[in-house]
Design a protein that fits this description.
The structure is a homodimer of 121-residue chains.
Chain A: H1 3-9, H2 11-20, H3 24-36, H4 40-49, E1 54-55, H5 56-63, H6 67-79, E2 83-88, E3 91-96, H7 99-113
Antiparallel strand pairs in A: 1-3, 2-3
Chain A binds a DNA duplex (30 and 30 nucleotides) through residues 2-3, 6, 39, 41, 55-57, 65-69, 71-76, 87, 89-92.
Chain lengths: 121, 121
DNA sequence: ATAATATATGAACAAGTATTCATATATTGA
DNA sequence: TCAATATATGAATACTTGTTCATATATTAT
């Protein structure tokens, strides 16, 4: 019963934390979106697509790496409904699937990209 | 030289994509932040901490799992400067390290958590 | 000092996954 | 149909990582 003391110390934050916690599906949805952007190779692809739709060949030029590696990552993003594919003649043209990811990329880009890093003493 | 044709088709988007691409350090910073939030166990910890600082014991209650697993994830988040630790008597109290992550969590929470999912035909 | 509580951590193991290589599929032009 | 271009993908490999178990460290009270 010694933890009862602690129970009350920050009880309000704990209760709010429990109350605001999404369902498992919500957690999966959120972490899935973050996971899509958590690998450098995929993040580059997504950042490139914020500028407009691009075919695989151009994506390879924009992000580097081999065509095979890019295609594998494109499949992961496609299956996760993060991006959308459309055939255009010999090419397949990709674009971001919805605005949510674009918003997250924008927020991260503005907040993290331009700044070197913040050490706090 | 056959790709020259393609070079021009979407050249503007490709050029913008190349122009907007962050440095490798920028990419690492962004993907690192996303990676912190890409695992359900860590995401839960971070979401809980958006409600205020919490000690490990309370975090375990808020997010579930064993104390050891939570502590391991806390270490990863701590070393990545995503969260901050402060000792308070027998307890160690954790809090979010900066507002950037909170902003990303907020954006994701609003955009992804409450909605079931969007299938597009 | 000893016991109890709170947290951290090393080692081991199990999954998950990003890349490469080789090859398959699809589209276009001759 | 055949060749060329564009993209996708299966298998194998190497690497990363999340969890568990056992144990270590730190703080407090007696």
């Amino acid at each position: 019963m010694s933890e009862c003391q602690r129970e009350k110390e920050h009880a309000c934050a704990l209760e709010r934390a429990i109350a605001c916690m999404p369902t498992e599906e919500g957690i999966e949805a959120m972490s899935g979106a973050f996971k899509a952007m958590s690998e450098p190779s995929r993040l580059k692809i997504l950042l490139a697509l914020t500028q407009g739709e691009l075919c695989v060949y151009h994506l390879v030029q924009a992000v580097g790496g081999t065509q095979s590696a890019v295609s594998h990552q494109l499949r992961i993003l496609r299956e996760g409904k993060i991006i959308r594919a459309r055939r255009d003649g010999q090419n397949v043209v990709y674009s971001l699937a919805d605005g949510h990811v674009a918003q997250l990329l924008q927020t991260a880009y503005e907040h993290l990209s331009c700044k070197g890093g913040e050490e706090d003493a």
